[in-house]
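User: We ran a pulldown and think these components assemble together. Before we commit to crystallization trials, I'd like a predicted model of the whole complex to look at. Sequences follow.
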Amino acid sequence: MSKQRNDPDSLDRRRLLQGGAAFAAELWLPPVFAQGSFDWKKFKGEKIEVYLVKSPRADLLTKYQKEFEDMTGITVGFEAPPEQQQRQKQVIDFTSGKPGFDVTSTAWHVQKRLFAKGKWLEDLRPMIADPTLTSPDFDMPDFLKAGMTYSTQADGRVDSLPLNIDYFMLYWNKQLFADKGLKEPQTYDEMVAAAKAIHDPKNGVYGFVNRGLKNANVVTWTALLLGWDQLTYDPKQQKLLTDTPDAIAAAALYKQLNTEFAPPGVIGFNWMESLSAFSQGKVGMWIDGVGWAPPLEDPTKSKIVGKVGYGVMPRGPKARKAAVYGDGIGVASTSKKKGPAWFYVQWATGKVIQARMLGEGMGSGVRQSSYQSKDIKANREWINCMVESAKIGVPGLPEIIPVTEFRDVFGIALTNMFAGADPATELKKATIEFQPILDKSEKT
Amino acid sequence: MSGSPAGRALDATPAMHETHHRRYLRFAWPALAVSLAVILFPWLFTLFMSVQDWKVGQDHAFTGLENYLLLARDQRFREAILHTLWFTLLAVLLPVVFGTAAAVIFHQRFPLRGFFRGIFMMPMMATPVAIAVVWTMMFNPQIGVLNYLLSLVGIAPQMWVFHQDTVIPSLVLVEVWQWTPLVMLIVLGGLSALPTEPYESAIIDGAGWWQMFRHITYPLVLPFIIVAAIVRGIDALKAFDTIFVISQGGPGTASETINMYLYLQAFAFYKVGFASAVVVVFFVLILALTLVLLWMRERTKWT
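Assistant: Here's a predicted model for the assembly, 747 residues in total across the polymer chains.
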């Protein structure tokens, strides 16, 4: 703690300033200004480059960027290309040793180990602990535990802070369920039974939809596998668990849902096509990330506004768990403007922006305080689904370096099942194919 | 005359010519240096990388021909070659046939010919990625317009790019739609250059439309068709954007061409050494196919 902080006069002055700032914020200032006596102007005149992925989160940050610039005097250069392009350029930039950005995001479920290996992001702990660099109301315990677990590397480094957490959940069409006298499925068996009851392809109605496209489909399988209380990888023994009886059973369920109850062409569906099919009101259920409430409740994009049920993943044969995926935001370790960059990260992950993110339906907030806000305009059932999913959240993909190869190899195995291939045979073949890739990544 | 610079050049001895050559050679050096930097160096560096075990962000080590041996053993790569050849064959043959037919039609005189030519050319002018996005929506089995059109004439809905068996022909459909106008343009240029005398003689001899096409138009315009086929062939081998946007090489790996495979290795898995070996093999393949087409062009030249 700084000397100034121990000075009682200073404390009084700070309280006074805090009170004044809070009063001003209540009256007319945007809420981001209401952050006490902390010197946000410390890096006035600096310019930083921010490089994120195009998403509702990026849209939210650009929407309020001027507030940050006014508050800090820091100019922000902002770029957010689509995910694939962003990740490629990001890795190439980092590898070059001179990335063209100071702040960037990391998809933990794909890049966590890769970023840790290269030490591409700065350990934020010293800056968090420095009172001249971190606002006193930047409440670290307020972050959701799942987010902090994800953002902490194996060696204890906190090289990013949570920006968004995505839970896999079950969207269900209340109208189609009511027509058949069904209730929200609570177990896998009920989910299959409901899909069977609703499925009526002659009339263009289908029981179930999800990602069938190679690579994208792996996350549905791993989400289902959590119902057997199993992950795909044991990090302690460094062993793949992808051809166990439970992994095969989860793949068989995935195959059944897609070959018996899904719309034709699901083999080429990513989340966008699944969303499109579900929002037409002709599909009973959809398993995917939690972020699709805004388009589903938008009358210009959806035919099922007000008819969507937001359900926590049903209970599997052994457990009820929700697959978690997430993005962090951090400071490039090679950046020469770490202070201003950290200010941006602090602002983006602060209470005000996170509350707005949840409140405006732009993503699931990563702070507990966001969920307690009374200003949330988003669907309350959706919010409750997130709160309940957070309690049973488990990382949906293995924390290994070659995650993309993992998704490619097992994604092909899953798509082969659409054409009738045996889940056990395909998973055993894929496991044999992937094992050397994994072994090599751990050695180098 | 001999006092002028031109006259001096004419009077020059062979020794003076050589001096002139040397003097002017230095002006070619910048262009030569740029060519070496942008063509030769990347090629040498690719060859160098192809014999390394090199992944982005990691140290690299010399592995000899290991990457090439891995490729030879990789069933997925062999399938990618077959997909590439199948796609290329269809994406060359169909536009050449339709483009030639269109050129013959547009070579005739009829009202609003210029307007219809303009309409026909439009697909070629659009951006491939934008086209791919539109076609992706059209291919959708539930809400796509293609199945709707089929339903109007009583044909059962198709799976288009969403089935292993139909994905490549469906992707070729996009290529045909976009690039038939290019073939038409090239062949039309050839048709315009044809002499009229053979046709006049043929008409006097009582030849029919088909006989004139088969025995006069086709042989005379064949060199232009071959040029169009070469251009289409190189383009089809390089096709990436439409496949990437529409099918991403799927379902599974059913439409994974060498380009898609290469992209995955280099930019998704970051295995730049292995990907470089793919580039080298792909280059040899393109070279071989281009040589075959050039040989065909030589054989069909007007004598």
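The two ends of chain A are 42 Å apart (CA to CA). That may be worth checking against your pulldown data before setting up trials.

User: Thanks, that helps.
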